[in-house]
Design goal:
The chain is mostly helical. The chain has 40 helices and no strands.
């Protein structure tokens, strides 16, 4: 049947057949009809919904054929009320669309109201638009936008007055404030119960007493914070501290109390904060001010003894809040450390040994129990250059580095390995971190051959062919390390990238010549074989480039050179055979020598070389048509599908 109608050229006939296909629910044949109508947009629309239900696909085809009633019926049959809703909106049947949305498509009900409101807005029917914007829940933004654009400020003000919506009152207050109508703005802010804006505006107008009254009555955190900032700037520090405290910004209050020497306020606020870190900082401030009694009171409140090196028994971090120069009872501290360790309070024990500067024992506990440390603790563990034996210091630093590496602190591990002079281990930590910028910075300053090679090897796994700086760094590192074999291999990789990604054989040839130059300098055990291989690849690429250059001046010479290349058994080691075939096929195609072009296309197929990456599908199709060759002679359904795609 398909062969019988294939010769029909009348578009109207195909359209009538497509309409019959909708009635009989034959979407496959409908697609063929749309293709033969040369209705590309319609065919594409149907193809894009191929994953939907059969009735939904038929409905889309019906829409393309202007069969709107059939499309509505089909959407109803498959219960795709969301698509039916969209169709009704597009047809302007808004009442029916709202009915469908309310009964069957509730999830899109607000969207339907919004689209209808937009429609009324375009028609200038603002009352109905406002009604449906409210139904869609977008009236706070859309109604104000619409009426402002239409310069109907009186109607907008009336609408907001009648709405009793705090958000709209706040918006109107901000609007009239921008017009410098401050009294009116205060009225609307009060209606909106926007105390932060009220306090802000009163402060701007210099009415601090009124702002203070509102903060005291309402206790709004944002309002109190703004008033506290204003009082802070005006030098009324006690009042500012009061309102910082009322707003919950205790740290700001403590800062202000410290700056103005108010120890009673500092003590009260630090206890109020109920935060160990804040209390420890306040205790340090008291000690620095010589008020040891107050500091001791805070430590007691924290549940600790001031001589203990850790702020709590079971904290997750080491507390560095102690004076290193303070005299301590070593015997007493060692007893506490031993007791803590026996009771499996390992972090507390490690912290005490750190306080005692017994770095070896501290590190032993950390390594044994995988304790997590930070940079401050690591630096505290590191002996200074003037402390003890240099070899012992180096061993301690290496243990710190090992601990940091184990717990995943690779930047810190790199730093410690560098301090110990182990640059290779340091760069391996950076490799685990995967930060290219830090790796390149370290390699540039390392001046170590093995570091250069490791860095260059790692950078080859990055996107170096799109990052010129990384590519330059790889070449620089291999050159500094005198790793000529690896540098030769990198240039060979560059050559292959130019061929595979860009088909630029001129640049590929240049990269291969650089590869050969450095291979000659290398001390590889199989140097001669590698040099011979590179020379052969260079000869093959040079021959292919020469064939391109003589294409215009001596076409027969080009064909002969390409045939010689294709007869070589090792062509793929240097160039892609598909590129050679493509050059010959395009040459004969341009000269309308279709039989010769077809011969090379068949040769490609026999070698199992895919056509698409190398030869334009249009060229292949035209060659087949010119010689009367069809893609599929069996006449099955797949042939119909291919004809459809070609027609589209």
């Amino acid at each position: 049947a398909y062969k019988a109608v294939k010769s029909i050229q009348n578009v109207q006939v195909w359209e009538n057949m497509a309409q019959m296909c909708i009635k009989t629910k034959r979407i496959d044949v409908a697609e063929v009809c749309l293709a033969n109508m040369r209705f590309a947009r319609g065919a594409r629309a149907v193809r894009e919904v191929k994953d939907q239900e059969l009735e939904a696909r038929l409905a889309m085809a019906a829409i393309q054929l202007n069969m709107i009633d059939d499309a509505k019926q089909l959407y109803g049959e498959c219960k795709r009320f969301d698509l039916l809703n969209v169709l009704l909106q597009a047809c302007g049947e808004w009442e029916e669309a709202l009915k469908i949305a309310e009964e069957h498509d509730r999830i899109n009900l607000k969207t339907t109201h919004f689209n209808l409101a937009k429609n009324y807005e375009l028609q200038g029917d603002f009352d109905r638009a406002i009604h449906h914007y409210e139904k869609s829940g977008t009236h706070r933004h859309e109604v104000t936008r619409m009426l402002c654009l239409e310069n109907q400020f009186g109607k907008l003000q009336e609408y907001i007055e009648n709405s009793d919506d705090p958000d709209l009152f706040k918006w109107l207050g901000q609007y009239v404030e921008s017009k410098r109508s401050y009294d009116v703005a205060l009225k609307y802010y009060e209606k909106a119960q926007d105390y932060a804006s009220l306090v802000r505006l009163y402060c701007f107008l210099g009415e601090i007493n009124e702002a203070t009254r509102i903060c005291m009555e309402e206790g709004n955190a944002a309002a109190c914070y703004h008033l506290a900032r204003q009082l802070d700037n005006q030098g009324q520090f006690r009042e500012a501290i009061q309102f910082y405290e009322k707003s919950g910004r205790v740290h700001h209050a403590i800062r202000l109390a410290k700056e103005n020497g108010m120890p009673n306020e500092v003590m009260k606020l630090s206890i109020m904060s109920n935060d160990l870190h804040t209390m420890a900082n306040c205790a340090r401030w008291f000690r620095e001010a010589g008020m040891n009694k107050e500091a001791a009171q805070l430590h007691k409140k924290m549940g600790t003894i001031i001589t203990h090196p850790i702020a709590g028994d079971d904290t997750d971090d080491f507390d560095m809040d102690y004076d290193p120069e303070e005299e301590i009872d070593r015997a007493e501290f060692e007893k506490v450390a031993v007791s803590s360790y026996e009771n499996k309070r390992y972090k507390r024990a490690a912290g005490i040994y750190l306080r005692l500067k017994d770095f070896s024992r501290c590190l032993e506990i950390c390594l044994e129990h995988d304790l997590v440390i930070n940079e401050d603790v690591a630096e505290a563990m590191t002996p200074s250059a003037s402390d003890g034996n240099a070899q012992e210091r180096r061993e301690i630093i290496l243990k710190i580095a090992k601990l940091c590496k184990r717990i995943g602190l690779f930047p810190l591990a790199c730093k410690k390995y560098t301090q110990a002079g182990e640059k290779v281990k340091a760069v391996k930590c950076l490799l685990k971190l995967g930060d290219v910028d830090k790796l390149m910075f370290f390699a540039n300053t390392a001046k170590n051959r093995e570091v250069y090679i490791l860095a260059a090897n790692y950078l080859q796994n990055s996107n170096w062919h799109n990052e010129p700086e990384i590519m330059k760094a790889i070449i620089s590192y291999y050159t500094r390390a005198k790793a000529f074999e690896q540098l030769s291999g990198f240039y060979a990789d560059c050559s292959q990238v130019e061929i595979d990604e860009y088909r630029d054989y001129d640049k590929a040839l240049g990269a291969l010549k650089e590869s050969l130059k450095f291979m000659v300098k290398s001390d590889s055990s199989n140097k001669e074989a590698l040099v011979e291989d590179l020379q052969e690849r260079i000869r093959i690429i040079e021959k292919f480039i020469h064939s391109r250059r003589v294409l215009e001046s001596d076409p027969q010479e080009m064909v002969n050179l390409c045939n010689e290349l294709l007869e070589m058994g090792n062509i793929e080691r240097a160039i892609r055979a598909g590129d050679v075939f493509a050059q010959v096929v395009e040459f004969f195609y341009q000269r309308n020598q279709m039989e010769e072009a077809y011969k090379y296309i068949e040769d490609m197929k026999s070698r199992k070389i895919p056509l698409n990456p190398y030869i334009d599908s249009e060229i292949t199709q035209n060659v087949h048509q010119a010689l009367g060759i069809t893609g599929d002679e069996d006449g099955d359904d797949d042939g119909v599908d291919e004809d459809i795609e070609e027609s589209i």
